[in-house]
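Colleagues,

For the teaching module next term, I've prepared a clean inverse folding example: a structure given as tokens, and then the sequence designed for it. I'd like students to try predicting residues themselves before seeing the answer, so please don't circulate the second half yet.
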């Protein structure tokens, strides 16, 4: 996702060290991180950057500094899908994202190939412990109060 962001992981961490908290919280970087942990595997100091980014997202939301931008909308659509199905259901998540951004057909040409390769499941996932996931989301909500 590095090509989609305004700050690279090492730049973000350095800005935090230098006290440029607002610049990092207002950046696109905290919303475009896919938590793939590539940065963790490459970091010589073993810094758990995705965990730092999760904390920064929480601060941005708590301080109402999370702009209504596409990465924020994507993040919310992803979490709503996990809350509902116990894991991400890509077609449902993408539909929610596309409706909120108004970009309904932007990626339509990619859909047939994704389905043909088995990358998108047409039915929601089964087997996830949905009650457990809902309990986790409820506890997080209660802890925010």
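(Answer key — instructors only)
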């Amino acid at each position: 996702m590095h090509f989609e962001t305004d700050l690279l992981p090492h730049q973000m961490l350095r800005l935090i060290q230098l006290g440029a908290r607002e610049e990092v919280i207002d950046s696109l970087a905290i919303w475009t991180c896919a938590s793939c942990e590539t940065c963790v595997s490459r970091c010589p100091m073993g810094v758990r950057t995705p965990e730092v980014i999760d904390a920064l997202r929480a601060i941005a939301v708590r301080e109402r500094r999370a702009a209504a931008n596409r990465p924020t909308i994507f993040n919310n659509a992803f979490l709503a899908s996990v809350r509902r199905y116990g894991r991400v259901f890509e077609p449902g998540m993408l539909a929610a994202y596309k409706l909120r951004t108004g970009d309904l057909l932007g990626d339509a040409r990619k859909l047939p190939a994704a389905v043909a390769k088995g990358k998108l499941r047409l039915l929601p996932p089964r087997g996830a412990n949905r009650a457990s996931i809902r309990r986790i989301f409820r506890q997080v909500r209660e802890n925010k109060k």
